[in-house]
């Protein structure tokens, strides 16, 4: 056993020396180069090479027959595990290298899509490698091989049981692929899910993490996004249109307010210049509804710009046109002539307390005018 351990140390030392010599001969041009690949794969490469070479020379080491079987089995397990470790690291580095090439094109939408797809592809590759390695390690035990043979003999029943058990997992996996490669949502997208506004922070094989504006994290299953509607504010372009509603008196000077609104937007850094409008979109018996429309580069800037437009227009109205702000007429409440809580307007003529003042006044006015 000591001889095997000494052999593994010697092989690891030799492999490490070989890796160091290779690194010295490669151009040191930073991340994404062959130097970076060798450096990040150094530990799994040493483990895999040491275990594989030790396994190869193990028969020539003088071991007793009782110890040989256990040592050989341990070396096989170590070789499989270290080989899976190295394969997973290589897969991650290949995906990362492809991501760097895509991000260099400086297209933010394409970069977000590439980051999301690369992250999901890396997880799928690593999960597949780990599953294959685990199966290979289990198959080194005779009992597990016998169990596998019996399962193959009853493949119909086993397939039904496995299908039912893995239905939810497979559904989430397929939903994750559809979500990512169907370009429905990417990392960094601004979304509204279940009434919550937030940013997609992470997409895994089974769940999606949404970071809300108040620093909460909402974790939702991937299948939610493929089975229910949700809003994506930045799927193709992060630019968005924001609106601010103002309720004003009918006497409000709309043209003057429109000029002030456009003047305020022209000098504002959050307005991207794509669009603007100041329109009366509705009326009520006591007010008009004015909509101020403006565009911004993303949802966060649009929200901030809407708030500042409201503040500016209200301040302008309060300073120059205070009577244009909405007013609530105060009069006698129906059936409440003696109420001390409701101020009453000056009365022109008296009416019975049990008669609604509006319709009765119109009828009397009509009678008076006709007389």
From TrEMBL:
The keyword Magnesium does not apply. GO terms for cellular component: membrane. The lineage of its organism: Bacteria, Bacillati, Actinomycetota, Actinomycetes, Kitasatosporales. PANTHER family: INNER MEMBRANE PROTEIN, YNAI-RELATED MECHANOSENSITIVE ION CHANNEL. This is Small-conductance mechanosensitive channel. InterPro entries: LSM_dom_sf, MscS_beta-dom_sf, MscS_channel_2nd. It comes from the Bacteria. Residues 169-235 form the Mechanosensitive ion channel MscS domain. One of its GO terms (biological process) is transmembrane transport. The chain crosses the membrane at residues 74-99, 120-139, 151-175. It holds the Pfam family MS_channel_2nd. It is found in: Membrane. Gene3D superfamilies: 1.10.287.1260, 2.30.30.60. Keywords: Membrane, Transmembrane, Transmembrane helix. Residues 327-371 are annotated as: Disordered.
